[in-house]
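COURSE: Structural Biology Practicum
ASSIGNMENT: Worksheet 4, Part C
STUDENT ID: 0417
INSTRUCTIONS: Below are two proteins. For each, the amino acid sequence is given first, followed by its structure token string. Answer the questions at the end about the second protein only.

PROTEIN I
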Amino acid sequence: MEPVTLAAAAQAVPAVRAAPCAHALQLAAAGSRIDTGDTAWLLAATALVLLMTPGLALFYGGMVRTKSVLNMLMMSFVSIALVTVVWLACGYSLAFGDDTAAGLIGGLHQAGLAGIGPASVHGTVPTLLFATFQLTFAIITAALISGAIADRAKFGAWLVFVPLWALVVYVPVAHWVWGPGGWIGHDLGALDFAGGLPVEITSGASGLALCLVLGPRLGFKKDAMRPHNLPMVMLGAGLLWFGWFGFNAGSAMGATGLAAAAFLNTLAAGCTGLLGWLFVEHRRDGHPTTLGAASGAVAGLVAVTPSCGAVSLLGALVVGLAAGAVCSVAVSWKFKLNYDDSLDVVGVHLVGGVIGTVLIGLFAERAMTGGPEGLLYGGGLAPLGRQLLAVAAVGAYAFTVTYGLGKLLDRVMGLRADEEHEHTGLDLTVHAETAYDHGVLGHGAPVGASPALSSAQKAKTQA
């Protein structure tokens, strides 16, 4: 966004005759272009999306065993700090700056948010707010990957992986889909309202790549690895669902009818996703579970993310139902194909993201998109082909680059935690803390003693 000139500011606000400084003039001029309702809604939506990452931490934390709870929480929370620094330094400029390479990447002219101040406007909202809103998407996308490698990744390696991954995977894909001149959104014309490609498919494909680099957990397919705290899982899922309204409806960039439609579609798809998962689970296992309810709701929300601004309410109901049913089956593929996706990032986010993005090619309606229609509404095969091509390109890119980055980091510093650390639990060995006090340190250890334990003591802490 070009800066507002002083002359333009003076013309826009002739009533301001004795402004104390040029900065005040710029703010007044910007105020004539900013819609306060849109800005208020996007402020709330940004806070909602940021809340999703702590919600994800609880969701993932409840799904692991007691010995890795804090490590799982930390992987999400530290992603907030790491991605924020990268995004403000150069990520935003590369993703949303003017295209510099045939639709592949933006430039660095806004690195450090240079030239973007309170007077800068993106559409009807401040550019600073738009940049912050997009930042929250990048944060949760990186955090999502941690679920695929739970229980066995070095925390130090994660600290290096996250900023590098954000730069080489998330930022380019965000530019392809949403950036000025991006080849998927601008040239190809594929639709993605709120992040099926940059968020769901990149995180799922990247999670698959990393879990292949790391290999399976100790005891995979042999030991029971049940969630240790299902109430925590349900709480995390509830916070995710709550935040998802900001994620999807906020992507309308204003307090509009489209935001209301995306809001309702989000609610509807989450509900049918939950029901679809429980139906398959009951038919297959004979028991509808709380973990299934939480996972089904998330699967429906994942799938409606790209489509909530393109399909009608009926389409959203179908998208959610399809995702809940298919993802309930997909999470078992890891046992057949022998990849250890610890917390089903591949089965829910990759598969759900593909479903939601592809089904736009079937269910898109002109009343929602303002143009392109899906196959079932007379749009022909072209829209479906565009969606399939976008899915294949983003999935292949995210998987290939993440696999290469993972292999590089594994060679340089090692990605896999030591076997003894993994056996004991990363909470104690990495963070010197435990989520639950089982009294292990109380046996023969004086108050205030070092948390470092002998091998024999460590064995007692295994969850």
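PROTEIN II
(use this one for the questions)
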Amino acid sequence: MRQSLQLRMGQQLTMTPQLQQAIRLLQLSTLDLQQEIQEALDSNPLLEVEENEQEAFDNGVDKTHEQAQTAEKTDSNTEDAVEPQLSDYEQDTDTALNKETLSDEMAMDVTWDEYISAAPVSSSGPMPEDESVYQGQTTESLQEYLMWQLELTPFSAIDRLIALSIVEGVDDSGILTVPCEDIVESLNKDNDQEPIELDEVEAVLKRIQLFDPVGIAARSLQECLIVQLNQFTMDTPWLEQTKHVIEEHIDLLANRDYRTIMKKTKLKEGELKEVMTLIHSLNPKPAASIVQEEADYVIPDVSVKKIKGRWVVELNPDSMPKIRVNDHYAAMSRSVKSNSDSQFIRSHLQEAKWFIKSLESRNETLLKVTNCIVQQQQAFFEHGPEAMRPMVLNDVAEMVDMHESTISRVTTQKFMHTPRGIYELKYFFSSHVSTENGGECSSTAIRALIKKLIAAENSAKPLSDSKIADVLADQGIKVARRTIAKYRESLAIPPSNQRKSLI
């Protein structure tokens, strides 16, 4: 054991504070970046927003939210206005849909061990804004809305106590999650007067179920629909048959097993269609018209427009303010006499320059990566998702000479505003599926083809996953049935047996 001196040559990456700051800003979303900029402006007196940008930044979130709302309204109109030439995949899909060789007897997707219970056929949906009683009220939750109606309803002291317990037991979906027996037990625990009976609780519950919207506080979907049916006049056509189907065969109805329903109820197909029409007029989720989820508005980081035949990428000027160094304070570093004051100004001046440089680097990297994505996916902008090319992060990393991790940071929580809608940059990356002619097809394009096939199918004889795989195979795209099922589920599309409809 002895001490010695050795010389070694090597390379090592040192994460300087400037580099750490640049990487951190690169992965921030627009909203987080705005907050980061505001914190920098508050903590560093040498940073300021350019005069023309100050008011815009103060209202930046509101403006960008308005832009996002406007974009959402105009995207569909823009798509309708543009009539691009159909891609090869789109033409093949239209041909496949028009063929008369599709079998009338198509196998269903779900086997017995894959059986999943589903709700009955969806209703007509929430009431329009100008017809909904809830519109215009200042209530903030379903419970508050029910409490508002409870205050307007004449109840005895005991019934009011029961009603309060029932309203507290209603969740945001409008279902009473607390059994009536538990409500009785809870109320009698601290009650010195005459015990409350179960019949009293159920009587109050029936009154609350007639609150707006009708069917609220039901204990099951079955009860919710029956409460709504009870509000129809007795001479309503097919009312009794509809009640019977819901009361006795709701499981078959959930699985859309119309053949078995007709066999057990002795209803003919035309009569069952009338029953289904009446069920369609009901609302299986009455609380949906009251509980409104807050919309998460997306602030696009970049926008893509076609100018003189070229797709041009631009940074969104409203996503961040233009900041600069305050020249007046910067000049004071040379005139102040106190060393501590001079050091304070110089250190904050250096931090301000680093911060501005990091922002500029972020913008340059984002613009470079977005330009590369647009260049590779021009077919998407021209023809839509069915023309999407397969592309992975490494493809872009090689083209812009950056590390794959950098591309991942740039494309996470960054959004692009296009004539076809607002998309996260990650949307443009997808795996590939080989075709018969030796080419490649994007998984995003296959999802679009599946969606188009299902949208154009006959609802009385929906396409099974196997049939969709056969149709795609006719177009030269070989995809396994399980892959079709996985892509269909990712699109939130139910299996064929749950898509089947009589009307």
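ANSWER KEY EXCERPT:
Q1: Residues 60-108, 110-139 have pLDDT under 50 and may be disordered.
Q2: The first strand starts at residue 47 and ends at 49.
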